[in-house]
Design brief:
9 helices; mainly alpha
Amino acid sequence: MEIKDPGFEYKNVIQITEQDASRKFIANVFLWMFVALGISAVCAYVFSQNQALYEMLRNPETGRSTGLGTLVMFAPLAFVLIISFGFQRLSYGVAALLFIAFSAIMGVSLSYILVVYTTGSVLGVFVTTSVVFGIMAIAGYTTNTDLTKFGSLMMMGLIGIIVASLFNMFIGSTQLEYIISYIGIAVFVGLTAYDVQKLKRIGAGLEYGDASAGKMALLGGLTLYLDFINLFLMILRLFGRRR
């Protein structure tokens, strides 16, 4: 299931006057993103390699998710909603703990990837995703073109993907799944550039308010983490090799 932050706006940000404020802010954003990816990777590996833990999530006889597995599958969405909509009320420490917990549960929910797909395939797709994500992040950071309208178009595409994915859960069309994956790659590639540019402007102090830079960096890390994970899943669906 694709998960994305629900289009929240970065409002009420403190003006930052230091010349290198934007670079420091972006560095903190990517630090949180890398921490989240690392936690997710470790949790996914542990649950995929430990048969007892994996069977807590999926019934080995039927291949279907257990009650806990279903809960774990949808729990990341709840975390995203809590962090996004409760952002102003959460302290930095609580928000950080929620983000770490979200990363861990997301990793557990993705443990099936290491069981269903070959290790080489997963690593290959991860490297591909990293390269594509890196290129688009650099493009978003360096371009002078305003990507606001482009980002709005990508958000519309994201909504379409979510609706189509929910619909496909009932009809189970392989062809529709491929179409969703191709469109999804395009959408999350575009969102990566858009989100990085938006975060760069926040770091430069173009928006004002009372939110701390630390909390904003955490929220930005969540946004880029979701861009990366969803791009990874879309590419894996198309090019991953099953065992």
